[in-house]
Specification:
With 367 residues, this protein is α/β, with parallel strands linked by helices. The chain is built from 15 helices and twelve strands. 37% of the residues lie in helices and 14% in strands. The longest helix has 29 residues.
């Protein structure tokens, strides 16, 4: 089970439970776009903290801009396409004959972002609740706050194709949409810094434009390597030991506290940020419920969190008060939490280079 499917099972699908006959209430509300930083100097030009270990207080990682770059026109397509859908069970050979009306739905919004980055944004007829970048504001939302899909809303929009990864559901509802005649394709890529390129190739293949996928994959790989190299050089120049970091998933309302381990992609991200991933160091796999012993053993100096998660527990100080074991770690003692929007930080889509850039600023040059 990959990280996102595990996360959906552990938290989001607790909210899904059973779907009501009507659309979830959250579908009717407007989704507020996340904040951005605006124009700023290049990462290579800013000064990192002389001693990042001594910094106190929380910080927020912000993308410079919300827009996702895309070609001015959709690339040429060749349809029909045969694609091996990555089902929960055995792979299924699916034939795609039309992409005029597409829904790309997942927990992080990375599928829709990839469709957009490939130049097929005008083909999207709906969005999930995590898809909030400029250009999709007017698209109807077909998933609720628990990533529960509304079948009635989907069917009313008459999509030709649904691309998903199993993190929205329930799965039975998605399969019922296939039975209703909609082409459904599952794309599952292992989370990490190689995922954006792999996702670009897979989504482009489904859309009948593999050349566009190769081009986008190459661009993303180059940009990820470039920003990672910049961070590495600047951190090395500090001459200090790497910061010990861990990713903590929080949902205070549900009492969910998970440490991210291998297979979540957080290790790749922390390595790109010049840190030591505690999960990799201790051999954690998947999602691990946070225990006092595990956290104290990890002894992180920086704790990465999703903004929505930190908000759900009342902020950094409230979290340390509620979970005293966190206060026994260097990160807890200095309230050294770095937060980023839920739909961005581990999405591993076309904005991954900007995510690394934003997190590096929040860790090494907080404002």
């Amino acid at each position: 089970m990959t990280f996102l499917r595990a996360l959906a099972s552990a938290s989001s699908f607790l909210v899904i439970g059973t779907l009501a006959a009507c659309a979830p209430a959250s579908l009717a509300g407007e989704v507020t776009p996340v904040a951005v930083a605006g124009e700023r100097p290049a990462l290579s030009e800013i000064d990192f903290l002389t001693d990042p270990r001594s910094h106190e207080g929380s910080s927020t990682a912000l993308l410079e801009r919300a827009e996702i770059s895309a070609p001015s026109a959709a690339p040429p397509q060749q349809l029909p396409v045969s694609f091996m859908s990555q089902e929960l069970g055995d792979p299924l050979d699916v034939t795609i004959t039309s992409t005029d009306r597409v829904m790309a739905l997942d927990m992080s919004g990375s599928l829709a972002a990839t469709v957009w980055a490939l130049g097929f944004g005008e083909h999207l007829v709906a969005r999930d609740i995590s898809t909030t970048f400029p250009g999709v504001e007017d698209l109807p939302v077909v998933t609720g706050s628990g990533h529960a899909i509304s079948p009635e809303t989907v069917l009313a929009l008459r999509p030709d194709l649904i691309i998903t990864d199993g993190t929205i559901g329930p799965l039975d509802v998605v399969l019922q949409l296939r039975e209703a005649g909609i082409t459904v394709v599952f794309i599952r890529e292992t989370p990490g810094l190689s995922a954006p390129a792999a996702l670009a190739r897979s989504v482009a293949t489904v859309l009948g434009a593999p050349e566009a996928g190769e081009q986008l994959a190459g661009e993303l790989t180059s940009r990820i390597n470039e920003v990672s190299r910049t961070v590495s050089e600047k951190v090395s120049a500090l001459g200090a030991d790497p910061l010990r970091m861990v990713f903590l998933y929080l949902r205070g309302g549900n009492g969910i506290y998970y440490l991210f381990g291998e297979e979540s992609g957080s290790g790749d991200l922390i390595e790109a940020l010049g840190g030591i991933d505690v999960a990799t160091e201790t051999g954690w796999t998947g999602l691990r419920p946070m225990t006092d012993e595990a956290l104290i053993q990890a002894n992180p100096e920086v704790i990465l969190v999703m903004s929505g998660g930190l908000e759900s527990v009342g902020g950094a100080a409230a979290l340390v008060e509620a979970k005293p074991a966190i206060g026994l770690t260097p990160a807890g003692q200095s309230l050294r939490f770095v937060e980023m929007a839920d739909s961005q930080v581990l999405s591993f889509g076309p904005r991954t280079p900007e995510v690394i850039d934003a997190l590096a600023r929040a860790i090494y040059a907080p404002e």
